[in-house]
Design a protein that fits this description.
The complex is a heterodimer. By secondary structure, chain A is mostly beta strands. Helices cover about 0% and strands about 60% of the residues of chain A. Chain B has strands spanning about 5, 10-15, 20-25, 30-35, 45-50, 55, 65, 75-80, 85-95, 100-105, 110. In chain B, a hairpin with a 6-residue loop joins strand 4 (about 30-35) and strand 5 (about 45-50).
Chain lengths: ~110, ~110
Amino acid sequence: KNQVEQSPQSLIILEGKNCTLQCNYTVSPFSNLRWYKQDTGRGPVSLTIMTFSENTKSNGRYTATLDADTKQSSLHITASQLSDSASYICVVHDRGSTLGRLYFGRGTQLTVWP
Amino acid sequence: EADIYQTPRYLVIGTGKKITLECSQTMGHDKMYWYQQDPGMELHLIHYSYGVNSTEKGDLSSESTVSRIRTEHFPLTLESARPSHTSQYLCASISQGATATQYFGPGTRLTVL
């Protein structure tokens, strides 16, 4: 069964600190892995997209890593800001479907305190 | 900034009412999606479309229907709303290519009393 599991479910950190969010998946055949940021009451916004051959990709203070062998990904946030408070969703694209099927994790709810 | 729009943003209605949630995008994307999301839960695909006159049901069983008469427009209709339909509904579109960015609208928060 294709699944995407994220941990932790929620996380609280102080402003300026770093944090790392985890994503494990069983989706196969794998096409790419995406990280989205979703602010409360808004639609998700794409942060990074990584294919099988990419190990790391950065977008400003966000750095995603991918280990396609162990089917794990992480999102590292550096020097957190209050505006980073949001849900971070890991999404895996199934190459085997004509739809271009996307499997969503439940997200990690990050809260940054001043 | 994504050019994908949803209206209304918030809707509170009574049981049994017919409603239509609007979604439009100006990016010319062929693929469009409707997702349902409850608080703290993952997005569930309820409908998708490959292009004009192409619509399919997603994974989550839904009593809603969709239409795709124009590329830019993908409305979702509930013929008779029930309290179990209370949720957030998100519309999305994506261009061609496996690594194409998926763009989401701001969502419609529906409450059925």
